[in-house]
């Protein structure tokens, strides 16, 4: 872990140093030195360095890159920087740049651009690139069809290994990856797959049909991007083939695109867990304050309204509090404990749904497991809380009310924390919406009601006794 962190820090330092030197050289007009500086630097580090420059210098630095390097660097730039460069580059430069991009990266760029700009760029693309781009844009967002690239190598079963290697050499420059090779029949239906290793180690006279693997894992064009990511993660693929309804091979999704999907989905879940409305990208710290406030105020308003029920419950039971004022002192403790237990349960269940680890256990067993865990937590808390409440209340009423309520609240909170995300998932909604703030609010209302009604019942019994 330390090694990984060290590698990430080193990469950040490289980009920062390059950016600093780049800005100084550009400001002084030393363009030859800029070219020499960037020549040994990786495209991803160049992209980060250019992205950190002032806007006035970004286009200048980008123009100093060679054509091939510029295309590769552009695909690593943040969407906001990509758009800024499109506005500052000449029309011919923009068209050449967009034309040479890989189809999947071009589609992601078009998703960020205004519709009028997309229509203009589409019209100026070559017929082949226009057709491919329009095809990908026709699929639903966040599906395999929208995520895939059409740049792959397909072979035929009757090809010999020697013929296949010749095809790979000829098409290698125009494809996204050559490590996974796909075999199709005359109607482009996917019939097999083989790795570059299998091809290189095969006898030159062997038929592809004899060395390929016929048991192919594939995804459909309408498969959700999260399912695609899980398939690649499960089988340790470098790429997964994408087929249409007729099982025809139409594209592949590569592991680098899946990493972006995993990061995007994780960002959304984290935002949802904090009751923050996520944007299309992880651009929170680049957004203006009004956008930040808008994303957060929606859920806060919902939570404020929901917490109003807690106020109503307390108001409805004010008679109990008037008789034993000390009861009010333990309300924060009880609802805080219930909220924390519920948040813990919802967190583990949401994570279990995300990793699909919970499927082996089953929803009912998962809820039952968390309910028992909540009861055990309540028992453990009783050892600390009840003696203090008994002593502070100078009698059994407060201690008994706190003890009974604590057991009920922790059990209920754990059950709700597990059940609500599972219910949302079953309904086809994002289970992350049932995260800590919502579980906490729900258990606040229920916890206060249970506590005050329990206290009222005990008070009545003690008075009768």
What would your notes on this structure say?
With 465 residues, the protein is mostly helical. It is built from 22 helices and six strands. It has helices at 2-28, 31-38, 43-51, 55-63, 67-76, 79-88, 91-100, 103-112, 115-124, 127-137, 144-147, 161-171, 196-201, 208-211, 225-235, 255-273, 289-316, 318-323, 331-355, 363-393, 396-426, 436-464, and strands at residues 154-155, 180-184, 190-195, 219-220, 239-243, 249-254. The strands form two sheets. Strands 1-2-3 form a three-stranded mixed β-sheet. It has a three-stranded mixed β-sheet with strand order 4-5-6. Helix 15 links the parallel strand 4 and strand 5 (239-243).
Walk me through the topology.
Layout: H1 2-28, H2 31-38, H3 43-51, H4 55-63, H5 67-76, H6 79-88, H7 91-100, H8 103-112, H9 115-124, H10 127-137, H11 144-147, E1 154-155, H12 161-171, E2 180-184, E3 190-195, H13 196-201, H14 208-211, E4 219-220, H15 225-235, E5 239-243, E6 249-254, H16 255-273, H17 289-316, H18 318-323, H19 331-355, H20 363-393, H21 396-426, H22 436-464
Parallel strand pairs: 1-2, 4-5
Antiparallel strand pairs: 2-3, 5-6
């Amino acid at each position: 872990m330390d090694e990984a962190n060290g590698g990430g820090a080193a990469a950040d330092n490289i980009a920062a140093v390059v950016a600093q030197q780049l800005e100084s050289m550009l400001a002084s007009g030393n363009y030859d030195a800029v070219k020499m500086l960037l020549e040994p630097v990786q495209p991803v580090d160049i992209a980060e360095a250019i992205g950190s420059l002032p806007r006035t210098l970004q286009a200048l630095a980008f123009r100093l890159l060679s054509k091939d390097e510029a295309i590769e660097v552009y695909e690593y730039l943040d969407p906001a920087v990509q758009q800024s460069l499109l506005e500052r580059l000449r029309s011919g430069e923009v068209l050449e740049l967009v034309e040479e991009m890989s189809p999947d990266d071009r589609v992601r760029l078009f998703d960020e651009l205004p519709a009028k700009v997309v229509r203009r760029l589409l019209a100026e693309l070559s017929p082949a690139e226009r057709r491919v781009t329009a095809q990908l844009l026709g699929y639903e967002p966040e599906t395999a069809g929208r995520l895939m690239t059409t740049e792959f190598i397909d072979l035929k079963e009757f090809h010999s290994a020697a013929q296949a290697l010749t095809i790979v050499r000829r098409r290698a420059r125009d494809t996204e990856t050559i490590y996974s090779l796909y075999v199709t029949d005359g109607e482009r239906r996917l019939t097999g797959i083989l790795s570059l290793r299998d091809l290189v180690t095969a006898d030159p006279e062997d038929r592809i049909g004899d060395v390929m693997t016929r048991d192919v894992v594939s995804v459909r064009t309408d498969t959700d991007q999260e399912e695609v990511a899980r398939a690649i993660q499960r089988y340790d693929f470098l790429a997964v083939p994408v087929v249409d309804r007729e099982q025809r091979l139409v594209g592949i999704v590569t592991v680098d695109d899946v990493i972006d999907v995993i990061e995007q989905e994780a960002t959304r879940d984290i935002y949802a867990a904090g009751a923050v409305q996520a944007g299309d990208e992880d651009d929170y710290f680049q957004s203006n304050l009004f956008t930040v406030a808008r994303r957060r105020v929606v859920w806060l308003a919902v939570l404020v309204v929901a917490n109003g029920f807690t106020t109503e419950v307390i108001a409805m039971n004010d008679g109990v509090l008037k008789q034993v004022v000390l009861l009010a002192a333990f309300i924060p403790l009880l609802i805080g404990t219930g909220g924390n237990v519920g948040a813990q349960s919802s967190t583990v269940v949401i994570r279990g749904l995300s990793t699909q680890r919970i499927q082996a256990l089953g929803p009912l067993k998962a809820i039952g497991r968390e309910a028992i865990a909540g009861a055990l937590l309540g028992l453990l808390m009783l050892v600390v809380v009840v003696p203090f409440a008994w002593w502070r209340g100078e009698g059994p009423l407060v201690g008994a009310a706190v003890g009974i309520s604590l057991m009920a609240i922790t059990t209920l909170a754990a059950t709700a924390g597990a059940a609500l995300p599972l219910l949302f998932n079953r309904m086809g909604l994002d289970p992350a919406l049932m995260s800590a703030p919502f579980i906490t609010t729900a258990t606040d209302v229920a916890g206060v009601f249970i506590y005050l009604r329990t206290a009222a019942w005990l008070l009545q019994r003690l008075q009768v006794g």
